[in-house]
Specification:
Blueprint: H1 3-10, H2 18-29, H3 33-43, H4 47-54, H5 64-83, H6 87-105, H7 119-131
Length: about 130
Protein backbone atom coordinates (compact mmCIF):
# COMPACT_ATOMS: atom_id res chain seq x y z
CA UNK A 1 0.00 0.00 0.00
CA UNK A 2 1.43 3.40 -0.94
CA UNK A 3 1.60 6.40 1.36
CA UNK A 4 -1.20 8.01 -0.65
CA UNK A 5 -3.44 4.99 -0.17
CA UNK A 6 -2.66 4.89 3.56
CA UNK A 7 -3.47 8.56 3.98
CA UNK A 8 -6.68 8.32 1.97
CA UNK A 9 -7.76 5.46 4.21
CA UNK A 10 -7.05 7.52 7.32
CA UNK A 11 -9.44 10.24 6.23
CA UNK A 12 -12.09 8.00 4.78
CA UNK A 13 -10.99 8.38 1.19
CA UNK A 14 -12.33 11.94 0.95
CA UNK A 15 -11.49 13.28 -2.51
CA UNK A 16 -10.51 16.64 -0.98
CA UNK A 17 -7.49 14.95 0.52
CA UNK A 18 -6.08 13.86 -2.87
CA UNK A 19 -3.85 16.83 -3.58
CA UNK A 20 -2.57 17.07 -0.01
CA UNK A 21 -1.90 13.32 -0.04
CA UNK A 22 -0.01 13.56 -3.32
CA UNK A 23 2.15 16.39 -1.96
CA UNK A 24 2.81 14.41 1.21
CA UNK A 25 3.80 11.40 -0.90
CA UNK A 26 6.10 13.62 -2.97
CA UNK A 27 7.83 14.69 0.27
CA UNK A 28 8.08 11.11 1.51
CA UNK A 29 9.70 9.99 -1.74
CA UNK A 30 11.95 13.01 -2.30
CA UNK A 31 15.67 12.31 -1.80
CA UNK A 32 16.41 13.67 1.66
CA UNK A 33 12.72 13.99 2.54
CA UNK A 34 11.28 17.39 3.37
CA UNK A 35 14.75 18.65 4.33
CA UNK A 36 16.07 17.56 0.93
CA UNK A 37 13.26 19.42 -0.79
CA UNK A 38 14.10 22.49 1.31
CA UNK A 39 17.69 22.24 0.05
CA UNK A 40 16.36 22.23 -3.51
CA UNK A 41 14.35 25.39 -2.78
CA UNK A 42 17.43 27.02 -1.22
CA UNK A 43 19.44 26.22 -4.35
CA UNK A 44 16.66 27.78 -6.44
CA UNK A 45 16.76 31.01 -4.44
CA UNK A 46 13.46 30.34 -2.64
CA UNK A 47 14.76 29.27 0.75
CA UNK A 48 12.94 32.16 2.43
CA UNK A 49 9.64 30.57 1.45
CA UNK A 50 10.55 27.25 3.04
CA UNK A 51 11.68 29.05 6.20
CA UNK A 52 8.23 30.64 6.47
CA UNK A 53 6.57 27.23 6.04
CA UNK A 54 8.74 25.52 8.65
CA UNK A 55 8.43 28.36 11.14
CA UNK A 56 5.57 29.32 13.40
CA UNK A 57 4.55 32.47 11.51
CA UNK A 58 2.31 32.87 8.48
CA UNK A 59 3.16 30.73 5.45
CA UNK A 60 4.33 32.71 2.44
CA UNK A 61 2.65 31.71 -0.82
CA UNK A 62 4.36 30.28 -3.87
CA UNK A 63 3.24 30.38 -7.49
CA UNK A 64 2.78 27.47 -9.86
CA UNK A 65 5.58 28.94 -12.01
CA UNK A 66 7.95 28.95 -9.04
CA UNK A 67 7.01 25.33 -8.30
CA UNK A 68 7.81 24.38 -11.90
CA UNK A 69 11.14 26.19 -11.72
CA UNK A 70 12.27 24.44 -8.54
CA UNK A 71 10.77 20.96 -8.85
CA UNK A 72 11.14 20.33 -12.54
CA UNK A 73 9.00 18.16 -14.78
CA UNK A 74 9.63 14.78 -13.16
CA UNK A 75 8.17 15.61 -9.72
CA UNK A 76 5.28 17.55 -11.19
CA UNK A 77 4.47 14.77 -13.66
CA UNK A 78 4.38 12.24 -10.83
CA UNK A 79 1.81 14.34 -8.93
CA UNK A 80 -0.16 14.99 -12.13
CA UNK A 81 -0.29 11.26 -12.93
CA UNK A 82 -1.31 10.41 -9.37
CA UNK A 83 -4.18 12.93 -9.45
CA UNK A 84 -5.16 12.43 -13.09
CA UNK A 85 -4.71 16.12 -13.93
CA UNK A 86 -2.49 18.14 -16.24
CA UNK A 87 1.03 19.14 -15.17
CA UNK A 88 -0.08 22.80 -15.07
CA UNK A 89 -2.94 21.92 -12.71
CA UNK A 90 -0.57 19.76 -10.64
CA UNK A 91 1.81 22.71 -10.26
CA UNK A 92 -1.07 24.81 -8.97
CA UNK A 93 -2.11 22.08 -6.51
CA UNK A 94 1.45 21.69 -5.26
CA UNK A 95 1.69 25.47 -4.82
CA UNK A 96 -1.54 25.42 -2.84
CA UNK A 97 -0.73 22.49 -0.55
CA UNK A 98 3.05 22.40 -0.19
CA UNK A 99 3.24 25.29 2.31
CA UNK A 100 0.60 23.66 4.54
CA UNK A 101 2.16 20.20 4.32
CA UNK A 102 5.68 21.50 5.02
CA UNK A 103 4.33 23.50 7.96
CA UNK A 104 2.54 20.43 9.24
CA UNK A 105 5.56 18.14 9.18
CA UNK A 106 8.01 20.69 10.62
CA UNK A 107 8.88 20.28 14.29
CA UNK A 108 10.35 23.26 16.12
CA UNK A 109 11.25 24.90 12.81
CA UNK A 110 13.06 21.79 11.52
CA UNK A 111 11.95 19.75 8.53
CA UNK A 112 12.25 15.96 8.68
CA UNK A 113 15.04 14.31 6.77
CA UNK A 114 14.67 11.36 4.44
CA UNK A 115 13.55 8.14 6.05
CA UNK A 116 11.09 9.90 8.35
CA UNK A 117 7.73 8.15 8.48
CA UNK A 118 5.32 10.88 7.43
CA UNK A 119 2.35 8.48 7.49
CA UNK A 120 2.15 8.83 11.26
CA UNK A 121 1.74 12.59 10.85
CA UNK A 122 -0.52 12.40 7.81
CA UNK A 123 -3.87 11.71 9.47
CA UNK A 124 -3.80 14.86 11.57
CA UNK A 125 -2.45 16.94 8.70
CA UNK A 126 -5.17 15.89 6.29
CA UNK A 127 -7.90 16.28 8.87
CA UNK A 128 -6.81 19.90 9.35
CA UNK A 129 -6.76 20.46 5.56
CA UNK A 130 -10.23 19.03 5.21
CA UNK A 131 -11.48 21.21 8.05
CA UNK A 132 -10.19 24.22 6.09
CA UNK A 133 -12.12 23.10 3.02
CA UNK A 134 -9.07 21.87 1.10
Amino acid sequence: MSLLDSVAGMVGGNSGSGAASAVLEMLQNHPGGAAGLADQFNAGGLGHLVQSWAGSGENMSISADQIQGVLGEEHIAAVANRLGISPADASAKIAEFLPMVMNGVAKNGQLPAGGTDLVSQAGGLLQSFLAKGA
